[in-house]
Write a structure and sequence with these properties.
alpha+beta; 6-stranded mixed β-barrel; 8 strands
Length: about 190
């Protein structure tokens, strides 16, 4: 019975090595294929060199550029019409369409504290690292924010509301209560990406 178990273990280890070596060689082949088909460009955008080869018969049949031939009189009239349209468009009034709370906006300074409770948030998520409580009138539930506050800087999800969280206040979830007490009360800046 012991020999049967040893044989099974040896066979398993051997098959693991075979699969590993096969996967390694297959990945290297795919990388070589990808590296061989790259095209290098210079700063103007012209092709310097390519590793792709074409038959001379196929090269003759490739369309290089499309040429649009027009009557010179019609072309001159079209240009005058375009200039007239540009002038009329320039005279139109520009309407301001910027939102007051635009994306990527700096929302200003917030007073941040920390909490260490267990359970579910106001959105129904279980508490975890990266969860933050905020006033839903200031920061909507479900929005992602970036907090800049020293060692606790990072991206957070507004998933909770607190009883005393009103206005520009944040409550950051911490894994331990000692860490939450050590955090204390800080002033942080908030950006909405």
């Amino acid at each position: 019975m012991n020999k049967l178990v040893r044989g099974g273990v040896i066979l398993s280890i051997l098959s693991l090595f075979v699969v590993f070596i096969y996967a390694q060689s297959q990945t290297e082949n795919e990388l070589n294929i990808a590296n061989g088909s790259q095209i290098q460009f210079n700063t103007i955008g012209n092709i310097l060199e390519t590793d792709l080869t074409l038959d001379s018969a196929k090269a003759d049949s490739i369309l290089v550029d499309e040429v649009n031939i027009q009557d010179p009189v019609k072309a001159g009239k079209d240009e005058q019409k375009k200039e007239g349209q540009d002038r009329s468009e320039a005279k139109k009034l520009v309407e301001k369409t910027v939102m007051s709370k635009s994306a990527g906006a700096n929302r200003g300074s917030f007073v941040a504290t920390a909490y260490c409770l267990r359970g579910k948030t106001a959105m129904g998520h279980s508490v975890r690292q990266g969860i933050i409580a905020a006033d839903p009138r200031v920061l909507r539930l479900g929005s992602k924010i970036y907090v800049n506050g020293g060692g606790y800087s990072g991206s957070y999800l507004v998933s909770d509301t607190g009883g005393k969280i009103k206005g520009k206040r944040l409550d950051i979830w911490m894994a331990s209560c000692t860490e939450a007490r050590r955090f204390g009360r800080r002033t942080v800046t908030v950006h909405v990406p």
